[in-house]
Amino acid sequence: MIHALWSGEPADHAGAHLTPERAEFHPRPPTATPMLVMGSKGPRTLEVVARHATEWNCSYVGIRTFRAKSAALDDMTSLELLAAAVLPDLH
C-alpha cells in the first residue's frame, strides 16, 4: 500500500484490518522511491524487510547474532530479487 501511496495517484487496498479507498498521500515524496528503514530481529519481519525496505536496522544483539541475521537477510534479499526478475507480476 505504501508504494501505491507514494506513486501520487489515489490508491485502494482491501486488507484484513483496513480497506482504504482512493487514499492519497501528501506531500508526495521528493524521489520516486523514498528510503524505507525497518528494524527487526525476527524471521517474519526479516522477510518483510527483504521485500520492502531499503535499509535495515538491528540493535541490541551481539555480533554473532547480527552476522547471522545479516546473512539470512542477504539470502532473502537475493531470493526476492530473483523472484522479481522471474515473476514480476507477483511483486
Summary of the model, kept short:
By secondary structure, this protein is mainly alpha-helical.
Radius of gyration: 16 Å
Shape: elongated
Tell me the span between the first and last alpha carbons. 12 Å
**Taking all residues together, what is the mean pLDDT?**
81
Number of domains: 2
What is the number of helices?
Answer: 3
Structural class: mainly alpha
Q: Widest sheet: strand order? A: 1-2
State which percent range the strand residues make up.
5-15%
Order of helices and strands: HEHEH
The strand count comes to 2
Ranges where pLDDT stays below 50 over 5 or more residues in a row are none
| Major beta-sheet overview | 2 strands, parallel
What's the helical proportion of residues?
Answer: 40-55%
